[in-house]
Sequence to fold (191 residues):
Amino acid sequence: MLEMSSHSIKITYQFTHYLRPMALLPILHYPDKRLHKVAKPVAVVDDRIRKLVKDMAETMYDAPGVGLAATQIDVHERVVVMDVSEDKNELMVLINPEIIGRSDDFKTYEEGCLSVPGVFDEVERPAEVRVRALDLDGKPFEFDADELLAVYIQHEIDHLNGKVFVQHLSMLKQNRLKARLRKEQRELERV
Ligand code: ZN
Fold:
């Protein structure tokens, strides 16, 4: 059940395993080309989108991960789910998210991604951002984000634009990583 409080963008999330089977969606892994498609804006926030959000949230919590963009499950529409809370009980849903303001100062965080399992590296991004998005009723809202929330909002919007966080790293690191992941993939296929 997704419950949206009227004055908060935070959503209480409750698993409802008993109501219907979990819909866990397969997550694309870098360097899959489909991760580089640019997602289209959502035209109407309807039950189809709300079901997509629910499935994405279940997939993110199950992984477990901090955030998931629709691109990562091969749906190329501008939908993001995130939960940066410690107790994993503050689901955030961003439909058609846009960054409408950035701070002049930058901050470096070690990022990870469900599409690049086992890889963590430092990425520098604006420390604070102002975000505009639609909620589950299709209503626009705006908020300021800092710390981990700012990092992951930028990380997830990158996904919608076809960009994986490792593309912020040096070409040398990216090429080494691709070579390593392709080798691991070949080894898996041989088993
Ligand atoms: Zn990611």
Summary: The first helix runs from residue 47 to 62. Helices lie at 47-62, 147-160, 171-190. The chain has three helices and nine strands. The CA atoms of residues 23 and 55 lie 5 Å apart.
